[in-house]
Specification:
The protein is an all-beta fold. The protein has one domain: Nucleic acid-binding proteins (OB fold (Dihydrolipoamide Acetyltransferase, E2P), Beta Barrel), CATH 2.40.50.140. Helices cover 0% and strands 60% of the residues. It has strands at 2-4, 7-19, 23-30, 33-40, 50-56, 62-63, 70-71. Strands 1, 2, 3, 4 and 5 form a 5-stranded antiparallel sheet that branches. A two-stranded antiparallel sheet has the order 6-7. A hairpin with a 3-residue loop joins β2 and β3. The protein is globular.
C-alpha cells in the first residue's frame, strides 16, 4: 500500500461485488487477506478484475476473525 497520511492506496483483486442500493459492498484480496469495503453504487469494480482503491485508514473498522466482534 502507498499513500500520504491516513489515506493509502493499493491494487486489489475483486472477488465479489454486491450492490445494495446507495452502496456497493466489495469483497477483495488485499495483502493475502479477504477484505470487505463499502463503495459508491457507481463503482466500476467487477469480480476477477484488479482495481486500485484508496483507503482512509481513519475510517477502517477491524473485526476479530474468531468471534466477528468489532475491535476498538
Amino acid at each position: 500500500m502507498r499513500g500520504v497520511g491516513s489515506v493509502q492506496a493499493a491494487d486489489c483483486i475483486i472477488d465479489i461485488v454486491e450492490p445494495t442500493g446507495a452502496d456497493t459492498f466489495v469483497v477483495m484480496q488485499l495483502g493475502g487477506k479477504s477484505v470487505t469495503a463499502r463503495l459508491h453504487s457507481e463503482t466500476t469494480a467487477r469480480p476477477g478484475k484488479t482495481q486500485r482503491l484508496a483507503f482512509d485508514l481513519g475510517k477502517v473498522s477491524y473485526f476479530a476473525p474468531d468471534t466477528g466482534l468489532r475491535l476498538n
